Amino acid sequence: MSTREVFTDRLQAxxxxxPTMVVSMVFLYYPTVRAVGLSFYRASxxxxxxxxxxxxxxxxxxxSEYLRSVLISVLFAACVVVGVMAVALCISFLIHEINVxxxxxxxxxxxxYALPPAVAGLVFLFIAHPNIGIFTSxxxxxxxxxxxxxxxxxxxxxxxxxxxxxxxxxxVIFMTAALxxxxxxxxxxxxxxxVSRTQRLLRVYVPIISPTLVFLVIMNTxxxxxxxFPMVDLMTKGGPAGATNILIYDLxxxxxxxxxxxxxxxxxxxxxxxxxxxxxxxxxxxxxxxYYGG
Length: 294
What we know:
The chain crosses the membrane at residues 12-30, 70-95, 104-128, 148-165, 204-226, 261-280. It is a multi-pass membrane protein. This is sn-glycerol-3-phosphate transport system permease protein UgpA. This protein is mostly helical. The protein has helices at residues 3-38, 55-61, 64-97, 102-114, 117-127, 136-141, 152-180, 184-192, 197-208, 210-227, 229-235, 247-256, 261-289; strands at residues 41-44, 48-51. The protein has a single domain (63-289), classed as Orthogonal Bundle (MetI-like fold), CATH 1.10.3720. It contains 13 helices and two strands. The two termini are 36 Å apart. The mean pLDDT is 88.
């Protein structure tokens, strides 16, 4: 290959990458750098920017309300990951086992994921509304008083169920694809050996599709920490009494309701670092436990 052809290929690659780089610089890298810088200021619309050093981070360390929000966020994200993975794995296995109507079942499971998060939040709000919800009367018939507008644990559970319902379809897409790539000979061997369906799922299929499961754990963790914001905003607004005040919503309130932009930037930096460390830990665990063949 001549020098001119190499130069042309590199130039073409650079031109193709340019739009992505520009968008990343404008909407990702610059805001990140700006947030880190702003976290060292007391920034507000009224008083302007005043350099305060690490004061915002000291406020975070000494804030019991923020620490409570951290605990709620970690618990919420963990429940989302476990709930989504468990439900999606069961549904994917059932779809994998049938031979007729797979497409119909897949569409039925996946369609909630196609909804924008805000729309999904509104749909579930009306489904589980304490007064007019479709399922409210059936739940109350079991002796449960449904009033999650004022009951913190109930609100947490309702938002959690909505978040799981929204994300299950995304997981089913990858899990069914991974199960479809499992060699048929393994399934036939397991059936001949008298292995039950449950044991076949847990001892045969799960180890083989573990790389896909690791990927989904990471994506679901990001979803639990960041992409559930619209549901919290539309369904509970962080209440009642802060029971659903996850970190991303707490950050939003600090910036756009209380206009403490420096303090909100410090919260965003801490959240970014914490989730980044969590992702690193998950990648390390994936290298240890995921099966990549060979």
